[in-house]
Design brief:
Blueprint: E1 2-9, H1 15-22, E2 30-33, H2 50-53, E3 93-94, H3 99-108, H4 116-126, E4 127-129, E5 143-145, H5 153-165, E6 180-183, E7 185-186, E8 188-189, E9 192-193, H6 196-204, E10 210-213, E11 218-224, E12 227-233, E13 238-247, H7 250-260, E14 263-264, H8 266-271, E15 278-279, E16 285-287, E17 291-299, H9 311-324, E18 334-340, E19 351-356, E20 372-379, E21 386-389, E22 400-402, H10 409-426, E23 435-440, H11 448-458, E24 460-461, E25 491-493, H12 508-523
Helix pairs in contact: 1-6, 1-12, 4-12
Length: 534
């Protein structure tokens, strides 16, 4: 029976980090199992490849169940199936959230050791920032973080429009304050995507203690005598873990595998014909996600990257990138945005904007004839809570993903407020030379019923699911603050599923931070000293 000290299930944003950090000790052996394949091909490494990723490349192909509060809409739900996970297919936006997110984890959710001052050192350890350093940033970490290199003039106009509307300019969303409008930093190095596969795993691949197995799906976790002892692959191979099984399959994959292994709500497991190994009610509950609503506007001229949809121009753009690392291929298409509040506390933004330098960028969003731009608005702290459940005991069956969007009516109200804010920003004088008519929702869409119908039709996930193996205290917690599964020894969950509440931002950087902190917890190392002066 093959095995290692640690079996890591999932080579995504957190799993790749943990594999690389654990094998810094040459006496440690790790087997990393990833259901997806290699990040071969330019789409994974050229920044503009993101536009293809949301349309099915390197993903599981899952969708939500019909959303009861969205006129039974079924939403495409991209979940990565490739080494590096979401960090290999996302829009490369590097944001961490608000300090109050993490302070609430510690003070209100019982997550001792996870306050902002305590997690900031792990963000810094990961970060190789080519622009900022000091209290809030790291410059020597493996993850490349840089300023955009291919933003169009409409991006500067958008920033001026945001200022004209009332947001201050913010040069660093990950610095002393989050609120404002400005340029996002990107997980790129030398105008190439910096995923955890390239930044962490590839440099570690030569270590004799690390074995990476791709295209290997795990069917279940083995438990004997109250301890996780290893895993069984879909092909029937048994792999033994001498120390721990570390589950890093994401907010959908981790609860799914736990339940397939008989770990989860006993009533649900019995209903789908799975023997109960450990009754843990919180598994699969507490699903949270960011939902986007967009405004689409027609440009007055060739002011967006839509003009490069022509095959000859696409070819020329690729050649320019190869020669100079510039032009449209160097852009993930979302490089500017902002954070603002629907209330009266600008230090606690609850809406995030992403300006897309084109139309039809993501699956399900229309493209305009000629050139257009897209402004997305997302509610950052939804109150709605959904679930992940099994459709059957078959490990090959798709899970039942129910984010329960807008099940709390306050989320709908705030989402529509965010949409109204986005429409107002695009009408500001600074954008007048660049933008013509509003295509979506369209100037005629003004009353609540019409806006609701539009929102149900156009809404899409931001690809930020979290929370389904919640960290904390009490009966609903799945893992403790050391990320150990409650009730079973030798098993940890270390990915976005452990977040008790969704961060007020994109979730890639927080997931990488979890991987960094988890690696120290697993190794039994003392935590990095808490940051001061923040």
């Amino acid at each position: 029976m093959a095995g290692a000290d640690y079996i890591i299930v999932g080579g995504g944003a957190a799993g790749a980090v943990i594999a690389a950090r654990l094998t810094e000790d040459p006496s440690v052996s790790v087997i990393l199992l990833e259901a997806g394949g290699r990040d071969r091909g330019v789409l994974f490494h050229w920044p503009a490849g993101f536009a293809r990723m949301t349309k099915g490349v390197a993903s599981w192909g899952w969708s939500t169940v019909p959303q009861r509060h969205m006129q039974d809409r079924v939403l495409w739900f991209t979940q990565a199936r490739v080494i590096g996970g979401g960090s290999s297919i996302n829009a490369q936006i590097y944001t961490r959230g608000n300090r109050r997110d993490y302070d609430a984890w510690a003070a209100e959710e019982g997550c001792t050791g996870w306050s902002f001052a305590e997690v900031l050192p792990y963000f810094r350890r990961a970060e190789g920032n080519d622009t900022f350093a000091g209290t809030f940033h790291g410059a020597e970490g493996p993850l490349g973080v840089s300023m955009p290199r291919a933003a169009l003039p409409v991006c500067d106009a958008f920033i001026r429009a945001g200022q004209g509307w009332g947001m201050p300019f913010n040069p660093d969303f990950n610095g002393p304050r989050q609120a404002g409008v400005g340029y996002y930093q990107l997980t790129q190095r030398a105008a190439r995507r910096s995923s955890t596969a390239t930044a962490y795993l590839r440099p570690a691949m030569a270590r004799p203690g690390l074995k990476v197995r791709l295209d290997t799906q795990v069917a279940r976790i083995l438990v004997a005598g109250g301890r996780a002892t290893g895993v069984v692959t879909l092909g029937g191979e048994v792999l033994h873990a001498a120390r721990e099984v570390v589950l890093c399959a994401g907010a959908i994959g981790s609860p799914r595998l736990l339940m397939l292994s008989g770990i989860g709500p006993a009533d649900h497991l019995a209903a789908v014909g799975i023997d109960v190994v450990h009754d843990l009610p919180g598994v699969g509950r507490n699903l949270q996600d960011h939902l986007d609503l967009c405004v689409l506007a027609e440009c007055t001229g060739p002011h967006s990257y839509d003009r490069f949809r022509r095959p000859d121009r696409t070819l020329l753009a690729g050649l320019r990138y190869l020669l100079f690392r510039s032009g449209p291929v160097a852009s993930p298409l979302f490089e500017t945005g902002g954070f603002w509040t629907t209330g009266d506390d600008p230090d606690w933004p609850d809406i995030q904007f992403h300006l897309g330098q084109g139309s039809g960028i993501e699956k399900g969003i229309a493209a305009v004839r000629g050139s257009g731009i897209t402004l997305n608005s997302a509610l950052l702290r939804p109150r709605s809570r959904g679930s992940v459940r099994l459709a059957s005991a078959d490990p090959g069956a798709a899970p039942l993903i129910d984010p329960a969007y807008w099940s709390d009516p306050r989320d709908l109200d705030l989402s529509l407020r965010g949409l109204a804010m986005a429409r107002e920003i695009l009408r500001q004088p600074a954008l007048a030379p660049f933008l013509g008519r509003e295509v979506l929702p369209g100037p005629e869409v003004t009353d609540r019923a019409a806006l609701f119908a539009y929102a149900c039709r156009i809404a899409k996930t931001d690809h930020h699911p979290v929370g389904t193996c919640r960290m904390g205290q009490g009966d609903e917690a799945v893992v403790d603050p050391a990320l150990r599964l409650r009730g079973i020894d030798g098993l940890r969950v270390c990915d976005a599923s452990v977040m008790p509440r969704i961060p007020s931002s994109n979730t890639n950087a927080p997931t990488i931070m979890i991987g960094e902190k988890a690696s120290d917890l697993i190794r039994g190392l003392p935590p990095l000293p808490a940051a001061s002066g923040v």
